[in-house]
Amino acid sequence: MTFVPKRVFFEQEALKYSLGEELWQIFRMENIPLSIIDSHNRVTGIPGKTAQEAYLEAKQTLVIGVRRLQRFETCKPSAHFQLPLCTSCAGKCEYCYLNTTLGKKPYLRLYVNIDEILHKAAEYIQERAPELTTFEGAATSDPLPLEIYSGALARSIEFFGKEERGRFRFVTKFTEVDSLLSIEHHNHTRFRFSLNTASVIAKYEHATPDAAARLAAAVKVAEAGYPLGFIIAPVIIYVGWQEDYEKLLAQIAEVLPEKARRDLTFEIITHRFTARAKKNILDIFPKTTLPMTEDSRRYKYGQFGYGKYVYPQEDMSAVKEFFEKQLTQKFPGARLEYIV
After folding, report:
1. With a threshold of 0.90, does the pTM exceed it?
2. Is the pLDDT of residue 103 over 80?
3. Cα–Cα dist 92/202, whole Å
4. Distance, CA of 69 to CA of 55 (rounded, Å)
């Protein structure tokens, strides 16, 4: 499922970097339309008369830019800081929070100043020494589909493999892992896969591989010795949800190599939405069947000052009890990092 952009915009400054020059030549040879822009944050020229058209066109648009590095954002509960390697995702998941945070045109962004980004990470590591500092590489993106162009994951895995006090983690729904399997990671990178039930993937996770393909990639990663993790998200409560999620966990347990069980993590995130997210989702996916009825939810204020609709406490307790029991039975010794 290789991502090939329909159009590519280059920030002028990106052409001063060797990766920027290389990508310009690659896309030019492939006859992909190229344009020069002043800033990767201000992109015009993506077509679309409706919100849905603009969204779909943006998902086929790649912007090559230079990431400004005043500071890294924090990333709770996943890590200490975000590692900003790219932005947005090639998938078209209906529930995705990026539908809100990136606006109506969530075009994909790739940053060419990878060495500068990693140098900044080294400064954070030094400041926090002797404590370990963990960086999340997928806070605002799925970086794997862009790896064919950026090489950012490979470069980051190599960097953190040499950092005594630095750790790296990222999550993906995609499967193009082969280029990362032979890297000397020294167990400093946790490779995580986002999974869901067959029903949820089919209904809501458009343009992504199915669970079996993701698990096949996870097996490759485990055999390469990476610490492995799974994010089950978003957990959606529907008729038969417990049976379906139990089937998914059994599917993981069936294929997982024994060596992967020695250092295995799970993260469980239930479905939630904001009023703004609901409006944007309905603009882009007017026929969505996502459960977004406010009356059936509990309103909760978040850490960033705005509220979101989450499942009632009774439903949250049922999810917590279900996953704690299932993970204890099927993956003894695995670490459940959180259920939210």
Report:
1. yes
2. no
3. 12
4. 28
